[in-house]
Amino acid sequence: MTYVTIGGVTVGVCILxxxxxxxxxxxxxxxxxxxxxxxxxxxxxxxxxxxxxxxLGVGGLIGWIADTTLWITNWLGDVALVWGVGGQSxxxxxxxxxxxxxxxxxxxxxxxxxxxxxxxKKSTKYGRDLKWGTWCGITLGTSAGVAGFAAAPIAQAANxxxxxxxxxx
Length: 169
Fold this sequence. Notes:
Layout: H1 6-23, H2 27-32, H3 34-39, H4 42-54, H5 60-85, H6 103-122, H7 127-140, H8 146-167
Helix pairs in contact: 1-5, 1-7, 4-6, 4-7, 6-7, 6-8
């Protein structure tokens, strides 16, 4: 498992901020129709959840892609911090609480991966949100901050769902 650096967290937060700025409908619109406006964030949030999930102990090709994405993001963020603002790079905290996926939880991740790949390929309207949400989830899923705390319940939910789905077979 690759842990996120300060640069990686910075990139993840930048993606989150950029998404929220693009989404922001204005206070008047948000007050008049809050459910529909908040619903516009659902593709990003679903993809963010998936991104957090694939960083937690998933091996094989899916785990390798997530680890490689995190490694590249760490490098890009660290370079941006050092050369862009004169900061310093380094490890971020101790990482999120690691909750291993069970065998059935891994099956759920594979099913979700098939759905995510299909959704990204099929959807012209939400493809960008799905890609950015997954990237943001991968970068923040192993952070020690608030986003990292979400990773443990997400893994537990995948394990529970896998037990229910595969237990019925």
